[in-house]
User: Fold this.
Amino acid sequence: MSGIEVVRLSSKGQVVIPKLVRGELGLKEGDRLLTYARGGLLLMRKVEREESILSVLAASSRKKTIASKLSRKEVERTIEEIRKDRGKEAKGSL
Assistant:
């Protein structure tokens, strides 16, 4: 791992990815990055052109669901509850 540098967060919440890191990862203007926080770390992953962000997230969720040994019915019920809660939140903000 040769691309370790300290960067600053701008007032707009922007971070410049150092040139060395961009070169090492082959990042260029317009590339899409998936970001997520885990254990106090900010992680970024380049999303390849042939894959969608949804497929990246779904693969991660699928692995976690399998590991948790939840039934399909339990997963569907949880998703439905979350959708209902979000619907209530959206109506409350109008």
In short: The CA atoms of residues 55 and 61 lie 10 Å apart. The radius of gyration is 18 Å.
